[in-house]
């Protein structure tokens, strides 16, 4: 650390030429991005840098952080530069994308954010606000009209606090100012992320007081596009390891580098209302039908990832590579991937399944990345809703028990709502989840010792939507596996799920 303090700060003049796609950020802002986190900075920003390296255009990105000032402030201090540290056991590769024209913090500069959303030069509003940022109700998938922040945003009580509120208030200003068409592009791990965003935006608009609605709804229909997209890159949190890597490789101090795996994929619908960067030059794929890619990724990668994280944390593992390195977790990962997720989807024609799955296991095993079980396991209540219920229902309707999906739910509950007297360990305890308090309340109210009553109450709370409550056997199976987890540990529970799944083979579609 002491060595780093004497290094010059990363900035326009200190970027080594070999690491910069372009030396200067583009002059014009064409994209306002909500969610200035690591994922955006290692994914969309890198694709945009590649697009601009190939074809110039007015596609500078104004990054907007929600509340956290640290990244925005450091980026401003570094003239919008930061390093992307691509890391795998054999290789470290550092680049400096330089595509941001500015960085705002919505909580501090709300009017500037709304002005930027309304600016005629803004052709794209993109977002990475995580599953948690969409303020939808898990039960209905519609806007959560009971959430205090949504209610405050609808009432116009201070600057918008929710992403959907921010977008609608920005579009409202845009409609009044110039009505220029714009695209809202969600880059989060939601099924049909564009369709969902459009629905939430419309629901918010329709819930506004009549006097404020203007003719926003028809304008949204005509002038605003909401393409669906699938995004994929494993991007852990920044640690000093990566700050040190930048210092060693570039000889500069970067306070906010982003670690990322070498792999990156982006598939989206080519439905843009006012143009877009030539992202195909950064390897993005454009297609009429994103859903098969979304389901492939959300289920095989994200769904399996959740199981690895929860079993790993319960086994005392701090990272995903340490977890997948345990044979019983690798076996459970194969069980849920091949047995429960794969039969629930159609693999896109251009994806070679064996290679894709082989690559997934390699990506999870990337020890250099140090991806934390705590990070993947956090926000499970909003993530699992996107990953588990639809495939589970598909099996249950066909009369089959999805044992490894039941194991996923059991391991999740064991981590974030541990039965009293059971300690899930430090990695599970560190998982952040908006439903933690509610789940603990449900656990406290369940008749003592009845795991089935607990799981039934959890499912009835709508945590995983509505459908699963119709299958009491599923709650029963989750409860059994929860019991095995608590009494005998994750290896025994995984073995139980595997044995049961093997006794009940299923066809692969
Ligand atoms: C992970 C994802 O945290 C999680 O739930 O499954 O963030 C995953 O790393 C990315 O979606 C990979 O594209």
UniProtKB/TrEMBL annotation:
<comment type="similarity">
    <text>Belongs to the mannitol dehydrogenase family.</text>
</comment>
<dbReference type="GO" id="GO:0008926">
    <property type="term" value="F:mannitol-1-phosphate 5-dehydrogenase activity"/>
</dbReference>
<dbReference type="GO" id="GO:0019594">
    <property type="term" value="P:mannitol metabolic process"/>
</dbReference>
<dbReference type="InterPro" id="IPR013118">
    <property type="entry name" value="Mannitol_DH_C"/>
</dbReference>
<dbReference type="InterPro" id="IPR008927">
    <property type="entry name" value="6-PGluconate_DH-like_C_sf"/>
</dbReference>
<feature type="domain" description="Mannitol dehydrogenase N-terminal">
    <location>
        <begin position="30"/>
        <end position="280"/>
    </location>
</feature>
<protein>
    <recommendedName>
        <fullName>Mannitol-1-phosphate 5-dehydrogenase</fullName>
        <ecNumber>1.1.1.17</ecNumber>
    </recommendedName>
</protein>
<feature type="domain" description="Mannitol dehydrogenase C-terminal">
    <location>
        <begin position="289"/>
        <end position="412"/>
    </location>
</feature>
<dbReference type="Pfam" id="PF08125">
    <property type="entry name" value="Mannitol_dh_C"/>
</dbReference>
<dbReference type="InterPro" id="IPR013131">
    <property type="entry name" value="Mannitol_DH_N"/>
</dbReference>
<dbReference type="InterPro" id="IPR036291">
    <property type="entry name" value="NAD(P)-bd_dom_sf"/>
</dbReference>
<dbReference type="InterPro" id="IPR023027">
    <property type="entry name" value="Mannitol_DH_CS"/>
</dbReference>
<dbReference type="InterPro" id="IPR000669">
    <property type="entry name" value="Mannitol_DH"/>
</dbReference>
<dbReference type="Pfam" id="PF01232">
    <property type="entry name" value="Mannitol_dh"/>
</dbReference>
<dbReference type="InterPro" id="IPR013328">
    <property type="entry name" value="6PGD_dom2"/>
</dbReference>
<keyword id="KW-0520">NAD</keyword>
<dbReference type="InterPro" id="IPR050988">
    <property type="entry name" value="Mannitol_DH/Oxidoreductase"/>
</dbReference>
<keyword id="KW-0560">Oxidoreductase</keyword>
